[in-house]
Design brief:
Number of domains: 1
Number of strands: 5
Shape: elongated
Structural class: mainly beta
Order of helices and strands: EEEEE
Distance between the termini: 31 Å
Radius of gyration: 18 Å
Strand order of the largest sheet: 1-2-3-4-5
Number of helices: 0
Length: about 90
């Protein structure tokens, strides 16, 4: 996190392994994004990208791409307005 300018950058790699009777399935993928605090830390904006794919019995089973944009504005001490836009392609 870059505290002085209020920017946070993150990455993650997810893996899920499942066995159902005699079939093995694995889902894995990368997530990356960033968040920024603006206007005296009242507005927080963010963007993230994720790609996951699944394999089962030696072949590709699924592929999913997520793109997420969000914003949050702090109105009062305990109140905020949030907006999120999500695009998912499968």
């Amino acid at each position: 996190m870059l505290l002085k300018i209020g920017v946070s950058i993150f990455t993650a790699y997810n893996v899920s392994y499942n066995t159902i009777t005699r079939n093995d399935y694995i889902t894995m993928g990368l997530t990356a994004g960033m968040n920024a605090k603006l206007f005296d830390k009242k507005l927080t904006t963010g963007f993230s990208f994720s790609y996951n794919f699944g394999r089962g019995q030696g072949s590709m089973v699924s592929s999913v791409v997520n793109i997420i944009a969000n914003a949050s504005y702090k109105l009062f001490k305990k109140h905020a307005m949030n907006l999120s836009v999500i695009n998912q392609n499968r």
